[in-house]
Amino acid sequence: MLETPALVAHAANLDIVIRHVLAGLGHGIHAGRERGAGVEFSEYRAYAPGDEWRRVDWKLLARADRYYVREAERDSHVAVWLWLDASASMAEPSRTVKDLDKLWYARTALACVAAIAQRQGDAFGLVVCAGGRAEVVAPSRGPRQLQRVFAALARTAAGGVLPPDDVLRSTLRSSPHLAHAPAVVFAAGDCLDWPSPWSQALERLRSMRHDVRLLALSTQAEIDGSFTSGVAYRDREGDGGLHRLLATDRDAYRAARAAHLDRVAAACRQRDIPLTHATIERPLEGALRAWLRVPGVRR
Fold this sequence. Notes:
- With 299 residues, the protein is an alpha/beta fold.
- It is built from 11 helices and 11 strands.
């Protein structure tokens, strides 16, 4: 089996990647469905002292000569929202894994979350932020919704800038699931543009008492400044000018990057937004475990 980053970069079908990544993950997104005397049948279990007699399946007793209780599930009414930063900087490639970039990693991570939500029976939707616009796949449940989300993620290309504040405010206003029901928001991006309308939208969602979790992506070259010395690089979202990182600049670059990420982390702590860092060259499973870890109740 290929290591996850190579698999992500070369697999044409998201289903293949998801089966690999989620094998043995054993996580849910939240408590999700509550077992009890609900209306949607889930499973049978052996009778235990204290169970209500009205929940005993008498027909099954006649066949099996044992008492079984019908378990049901109550919908938790929690929607899962996937927020993807697909701005131009997300096209930044790995310098060591061919055909792997930040967007590939982010949309695969979000596809895994969508698959888990579908498995839990949650409604889930998608917001893709790119080219100054926000494309929305409204929340729904089931395998067809999963394929709709997969298709939207697969056709997403990194480009342009993040949507302006008025576009994101309109997106929130037009999404009744976000206005009237609790949600878990999984946001994936590189956080290079921070603060920004995108970060402010996440903070706004948190102020609405939604559970917001952020995945911040980096390449290994961005972390250690191991870009080829003297080669010119173009700012994908800035003025379009060329920039060179010389060997003598590396310490200053690393210090500036660390200071920026410290500001991002401080803003997340202030808003009570769990922040998970991920390096795209490393296996996705570890980042997913941290991202999916259910935090304490923070309502």
